[in-house]
Specification:
The protein is an alpha+beta fold. Helix content is about 15%, strand content about 35%. Strands 1, 2, 3, 4, 7, 8, 9, 10 and 11 form a 9-stranded antiparallel β-sheet that branches. Strand 12, helix 3 and strand 13 form a beta-alpha-beta unit. The longest helix has 12 residues. This is Siderophore-interacting protein. It comes from Nocardia rhizosphaerae.
Length: about 280
């Protein structure tokens, strides 16, 4: 296995550079065990995983994702096969869902993933009923998106599905970071404690009774951002793919933030199960 210091050197180079980059790690396939289940606000459920196989888990930066693997409709658990540092998913493809790494503690041997609870979702239904002792396979992360610390300001925006990543980004930013963070939730009950730098203004955007993925309230809030002349901004935006179109145009056309200085990721799409994550940078 590649020495961990090599990843640290790669990450440090990007952190000090001008544009973001994805630093790859050996993807890995691990069986883990549910240790704890706890609600986080009214819409998220945090599951803490453990197990000896987490000893080789790679986690270095806030923006990392893993895939949980589930049995297919026929009840058969199909797993991808390791091929060097890659996974071959085969055909029929194993059933999986992608989630953000919320917290990883190598010292405690623990991994936290926050699940958005909603009716009819495969992983959501599993998370809502799972009990400590249950085992599941996790693939990844295949790498992490490293965001330089050289920008003047940072703009973060997303819906509830992006909240775990936004929370991790905020708590791991240098404490002198400045910028804006917007999070769309149904209402105050879905808000959670965050640990942003003092210079990052956090705004909770309430959707009310509108269904997720049907509102432009997040876009309207983001459009209030005014960037002082001469400031270099990085934008990180994620959520329902359709709702991101207007935000993407605003980031590109109005704020003048190009694809090398932004990541706009469709985490899900209304009406589409197992939406294949859509990135436009």
């Amino acid at each position: 296995m590649k020495d961990r210091s090599a990843y640290a050197d790669n990450i440090a180079e990007v952190l000090a550079g001008d544009h973001y980059a994805k630093v790859p790690y050996p993807i890995g396939l691990r069986e883990v065990e549910v240790l704890r289940v706890a609600p986080v606000g009214a819409a998220l459920l945090r599951i803490t995983f453990g197990g000896s196989e987490l000893a080789t888990f790679h986690s270095y930066v806030p923006d990392e994702h893993v895939r949980l693997i589930f049995p297919g409709e026929d009840g058969v658990l199909r797993l991808p096969e390791l091929n060097g540092t890659m996974l071959e998913w085969g055909n029929p493809r194993p059933v999986s869902r992608e989630y953000t790494v919320r917290r990883h503690s190598a010292e405690a041997g623990e991994l936290d993933i926050d699940f958005v609870i909603h009716p009819g979702g495969l992983a959501s239904d599993w998370a809502a009923s799972v009990t400590p002792g249950t085992k599941v396979h996790i693939a990844g992360p295949p790498g992490g998106v490293v965001i330089p610390e050289t920008y003047d300001d940072y703009l973060l925006a997303g819906d509830i599905t992006a909240l775990p990543a936004i929370a991790r980004l905020l708590e791991r930013m240098p404490r002198d970071t400045t910028g804006w963070a917007f999070v769309e939730v149904a209402g105050p009950a879905e808000e959670i404690p965050l640990d942003p730098p003092a210079g990052v203004a956090v705004r909770w955007v309430h959707r009310g009774e509108l269904a997720p993925g049907t509102s432009d309230v997040l876009e309207q809030a983001v459009r209030e951002v005014k960037v002082p002349a001469g400031r270099r901004v990085y934008a990180w935006v994620a959520g329902e793919a359709g709702c991101l179109r207007g935000i993407r145009k605003f980031v590109r056309n109005d704020l003048g933030i190009g694809p090398k200085d932004s990541l706009v990721a469709g985490y899900w799409k209304r009406g589409v199960a197992d939406f294949d994550r859509e990135d436009e940078r």
